[in-house]
């Protein structure tokens, strides 16, 4: 399975913060936001990852992340000229995906949970599509899943005025290779975007969509607003300081999953110097 991180968009809900810098490069406590979704794909065992960015932000992402070799991965980059919807990611990434399955994670989504890596790795051989549902207080902001009494998905709507449930779809999706063909059939919505909910509904209509409800032990943040960005930062700060472990540390994920060896980790330690991040990596190698 390959992975795509969609890090485009203009971040208008965060203006003026995002006028000069991509939302996905903003700090969430002690690391760039993009590290969190990247670590999710790496936890799933995915090493080939495509970053889709805006034209003017791509150089900054390349400067930060490079070609991925420092974490035992292979990174590629493509441009989304306009924010035409999430489903367009699979059309932009068609050549990159090739004949493989693909996972898509949104660059402004943060996930945390017990056994989360195990859950992710269970999705990499998906036939059809696999998505998640998470209970929220404001489902009208998201794609919403309607369930029957047996928690079987009935429908998926994008940002409905009258949500049929409290279950939002987080920005993490797993698909088989048919996703490219389906994405090409998605017509723009009234908002002018190729909606990911339309794509998921296509899989649902064919009986090929699995929807898993995230348990209470899992947390999800969509950091698209100032409030949610602040909430995510506070969550990461409190959790890391209490547990003395980092969330979203890509070098740690790479080392623990044997993407890189101790010598390669030492190179990263030198790169980060005396920063808190570098000191944390030094502790990992000394354990």
Automatic annotation (TrEMBL):
Q: Name one Pfam family in it.
A: NTP_transferase
Instruction: Offer an example of a GO molecular function term for this protein.
Output: metal ion binding
Coiled-coil region(s): none
- Enzyme class per UniProt: transferase
EC number of the protein: 2.7.7.24
Cofactor(s) required for function per UniProt: Mg(2+)
Q: Does the keyword Magnesium apply?
A: yes
Q: What keywords appear on the UniProt entry?
A: Magnesium, Metal-binding, Nucleotidyltransferase, Transferase
Record has Nucleotide-binding as a keyword = no
Question: What reactions does this protein catalyze?
Answer: dTTP + alpha-D-glucose 1-phosphate + H(+) = dTDP-alpha-D-glucose + diphosphate
Task: Show the NCBIfam families listed in the entry.
Answer: rmlA
Q: Which family does it belong to?
A: Belongs to the glucose-1-phosphate thymidylyltransferase family.
PANTHER family (UniProt xref): GLUCOSE-1-PHOSPHATE THYMIDYLYLTRANSFERASE, GLUCOSE-1-PHOSPHATE THYMIDYLYLTRANSFERASE 1
What this chain does, per the record? Catalyzes the formation of dTDP-glucose, from dTTP and glucose 1-phosphate, as well as its pyrophosphorolysis.
**Protein name, UniProt field:** Glucose-1-phosphate thymidylyltransferase
Q: Which organism is it from?
A: Christiangramia flava JLT2011
Lineage of the source organism?
Bacteria, Pseudomonadati, Bacteroidota, Flavobacteriia, Flavobacteriales
């Amino acid at each position: 399975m390959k992975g795509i991180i969609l890090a485009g968009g203009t971040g208008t809900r965060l203006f003026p913060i995002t006028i000069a810098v991509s939302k996905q490069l903003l700090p969430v406590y002690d690391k760039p936001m993009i590290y969190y979704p990247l670590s999710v794909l790496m936890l799933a065992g995915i090493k080939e990852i495509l970053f889709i960015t805006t034209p003017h932000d791509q150089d900054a992402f390349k400067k930060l992340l490079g070609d991925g070799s420092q974490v035992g991965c292979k990174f590629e980059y493509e441009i989304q000229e306009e924010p035409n919807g999430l489903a367009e990611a699979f059309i932009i990434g068609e050549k990159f995906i090739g004949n493989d399955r693909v996972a898509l994670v949104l660059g402004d989504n943060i996930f945390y949970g017990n056994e989360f890596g195990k859950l992710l790795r269970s999705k990499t051989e998906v036939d059809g599509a696999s998505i998640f549902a998470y209970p929220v207080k404001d489902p009208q902001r998201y794609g919403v899943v309607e369930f029957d009494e047996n928690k079987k998905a009935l429908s998926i709507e994008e940002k409905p005025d009258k949500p049929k449930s409290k279950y939002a779809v987080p920005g993490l999706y797993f698909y088989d290779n048919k996703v490219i063909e389906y994405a090409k059939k998605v017509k723009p919505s009234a908002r002018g975007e190729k909606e990911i909910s339309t794509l998921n509904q296509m899989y649902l209509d064919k009986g090929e969509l699995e929807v898993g409800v995230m348990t209470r032990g899992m947390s999800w943040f969509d950091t698209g607003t100032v409030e949610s960005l602040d909430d995510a930062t506070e969550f990461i700060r409190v959790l890391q300081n209490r547990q003395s472990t980092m969330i979203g540390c890509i070098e740690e994920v790479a080392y623990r999953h044997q993407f890189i060896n101790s010598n390669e980790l030492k190179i990263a330690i030198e790169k980060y110097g005396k920063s808190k991040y570098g000191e944390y990596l030094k502790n990992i190698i000394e354990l």
